[in-house]
């Protein structure tokens, strides 16, 4: 979870409904640390999540679990094979009564995220809850791209705090940080594709990320563009030239140091329904300043800005 998130959520819901925070972090870490494949992370996370909930349900004698599954991206992306959302069960044939000992009710499952917010406004839910940016069910584990380690999780957690704080007043739909090992290989072919946009060269990261191409899942390369653009607006056109073959995300490099092991990507999108998303036109100097604050951690080698809409990328990386 994000820095201080359990405490913040408990405080946010105080006076609205009773809440008990269950600390099961050792069970989750034991199940997912060391995993590299995005789908395997999500499925393993799901098993721990509902096993823990099953134990809680039995403790309190609960027959039903009420959860906030919605249409997109939850069961639509799961059934469509884009990526497994951890909270999708009955839609893919999992009998919760048999497997976990509780029946399931999902009152929002036919609604889109913007419709859920309208329902919340009609019910008088506090605006801080309504406008809270979405957070992936498996948490920061899928923003620590590639092999999941405690150090990488710590990098993502600290970088996310900076990005959320620095970009929080810009009217964005979702904004966060992701991290992975800074290991790349040059691509002369892709570099030739952007020769008209400036003095640029393109590398491919060794890690892979999830994308959407032709309504199907693509698990492909992440391209890093380094160098000087003729004009900043061209950064938002890079994906048109580079999301070919199996490239799913395109990142423009903002700053780089002399040491460190990890690369951090700043991700920001604008969207209504989260089925498609645009990249906001953010000021370059603002992004560079955010990147420099992130780079104060000497474990981080470089920082970039993801300029890929959805599709062909997904909002998350895994």
How would you sum up this structure, described in words?
The structure is a single chain. With 318 residues, this protein is α/β, with parallel strands linked by helices. 34% of the residues lie in helices and 23% in strands. The chain has a seven-stranded mixed β-sheet with strand order 3-8-9-7-6-5-4. It is globular. The mean pLDDT is 94.
Provide a concise account of the structure shown:
The protein is an alpha/beta fold and 318 residues long. It has helices at 5-12, 25-32, 38-60, 71-79, 96-100, 113-123, 127-130, 150-166, 188-193, 238-242, 284-294; strands at residues 64-66, 103-105, 174-181, 184-186, 198-213, 216-229, 247-256, 262-269, 300-306.
Q: Topology, please?
A:
Blueprint: H1 5-12, H2 25-32, H3 38-60, E1 64-66, H4 71-79, H5 96-100, E2 103-105, H6 113-123, H7 127-130, H8 150-166, E3 174-181, E4 184-186, H9 188-193, E5 198-213, E6 216-229, H10 238-242, E7 247-256, E8 262-269, H11 284-294, E9 300-306
Parallel strand pairs: 1-2, 6-7, 8-9
Antiparallel strand pairs: 3-8, 4-5, 5-6, 7-9
Helix pairs in contact: 2-3
Shape: globular
**Residue windows where pLDDT falls under 50 for at least 5 positions:** none
What is the makeup of the main sheet?
7 strands, mixed
Please give the share of residues in helix. Answer: 25-40%
Q: If you average the pLDDT, what whole number results?
A: 94
- Spatial order of strands in the largest sheet: 3-8-9-7-6-5-4
Q: What is the radius of gyration computed over CA atoms, rounded to a whole number of angstroms? A: 20 Å
């Amino acid at each position: 979870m994000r820095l201080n998130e359990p405490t913040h959520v408990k405080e946010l819901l105080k006076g609205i409904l009773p809440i008990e925070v269950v600390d099961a972090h050792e069970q989750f870490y034991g199940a997912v640390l060391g995993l590299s494949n995005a789908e395997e992370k999500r499925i393993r996370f799901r098993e721990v999540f509902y096993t823990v909930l099953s134990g809680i349900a039995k403790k309190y004698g609960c027959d039903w679990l009420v959860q906030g599954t919605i249409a997109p991206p939850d069961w639509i992306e799961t059934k469509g094979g884009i990526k497994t959302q951890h909270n999708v069960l009955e839609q893919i044939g999992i009998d919760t009564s048999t497997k976990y000992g509780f029946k399931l009710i999902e009152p929002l499952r036919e609604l889109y995220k913007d419709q859920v917010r309208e329902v919340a406004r009609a019910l008088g839910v506090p605006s801080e809850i309504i406008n809270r940016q979405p957070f992936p069910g498996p948490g920061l584990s899928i923003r620590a791209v590639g092999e999941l380690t405690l150090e990488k999780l710590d990098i993502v957690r600290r970088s996310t705090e900076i990005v959320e704080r620095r970009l929080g007043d810009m009217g964005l739909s979702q904004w966060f940080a992701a991290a992975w090992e800074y290991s790349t290989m040059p691509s002369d072919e892709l570099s030739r594709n952007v020769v008209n946009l400036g003095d640029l060269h393109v590398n491919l990261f060794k890690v892979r990320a999830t994308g959407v191409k032709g309504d199907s899942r693509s698990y492909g390369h992440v391209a890093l563009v380094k160098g000087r653009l003729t004009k900043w607006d061209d950064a938002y056109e890079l994906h048109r030239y580079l999301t070919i073959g199996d490239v799913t995300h395109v990142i423009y490099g903002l700053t780089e140091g002399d040491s460190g092991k990890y690369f951090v990507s700043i991700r920001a999108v604008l969207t209504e329904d989260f089925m498609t998303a645009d990249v906001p036109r953010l000021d370059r100097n603002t992004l560079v300043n955010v990147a420099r604050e992130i780079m104060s951690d000497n474990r981080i080698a470089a920082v970039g800005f993801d300029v890929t809409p959805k599709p062909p990328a997904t909002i998350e990386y895994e």
